[in-house]
Amino acid sequence: xxxxxxxxxxxxxxxxxxxxxxxxxxxxxxxxxxxxxxxxxxxxxxxxxxxxxxxxxxxxxxxxxxxxxxxxxxxxxxxxxxxxxxxxxxxxxxxxxxxxxxxxxxxxxxxx
Length: 112
Prior knowledge:
Blueprint: H1 2-14, H2 17-29, H3 34-48, H4 53-64, H5 68-78, H6 85-109
């Protein structure tokens, strides 16, 4: 039933505290810098191995989000738009949704 699936998902999420601590810097830097987030994922995969649960979760997270601040400053700056606060809010919300879906899909698909 639906409640047993939700209970299973919640138990899986809270049983992986180590992975959460390792991907937390990635979640912070991804909206700001693509190069820094790529370096973080590379480090996570070198330390834990490419087939580790945390590397899979980090790879999913980097694929589901975008460098919001960079995209806004580049594209809006190139055509002269200076008021982009609403676009920033929408981008951050989209990043949060993308990160949440990346973690949920990693848990569902890879059986972490």
